[in-house]
């Protein structure tokens, strides 16, 4: 099983543009995804921070 690539996910979902992603770290990608899920689904940030990248990808 291949782990999700957050940069690809953020690009494919239109959350970030390729030029933006080029300057973002893995941690930036993860935090961006957590913020986006929080805003879309109103889930608690601490709860989201405890999830794996694969779990987060399923919530977007």
Description:
- The chain starts with 5 loop residues before the first helix and ends with a helix.
- The protein has 60 residues and is an all-alpha fold.
- The relative contact order is 0.19.
- The chain contains 5 helices and no strands.
- The longest helix has 16 residues, at 26-41.
- Helix 3 packs parallel to helix 5.
Secondary-structure blueprint:
Layout: H1 6-12, H2 18-21, H3 26-41, H4 45-49, H5 53-59
Helix content: 55-70%
Number of helices: 5
Q: What's the end-to-end separation, in Å?
A: 19 Å
Beta-strand portion reads under 5%
Mean pLDDT: 95
Rg over C-alpha atoms, rounded to the nearest angstrom? 11 Å
Number of strands: 0
**Element-level helix/strand string:** HHHHH
The dominant shape is globular
Biggest beta sheet summary: none
- Secondary-structure-derived class: mainly alpha
Q: What are the low-pLDDT stretches, counting only 5+ consecutive residues below 50?
A: none
């Amino acid at each position: 099983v291949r782990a999700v690539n957050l940069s690809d996910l953020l690009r494919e979902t239109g959350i970030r543009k390729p030029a933006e992603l080029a300057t973002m770290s893995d941690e930036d990608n993860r935090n961006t995804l957590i913020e986006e899920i929080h805003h879309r689904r109103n889930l608690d940030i601490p709860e989201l921070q405890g999830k794996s990248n694969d779990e987060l990808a399923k919530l977007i």
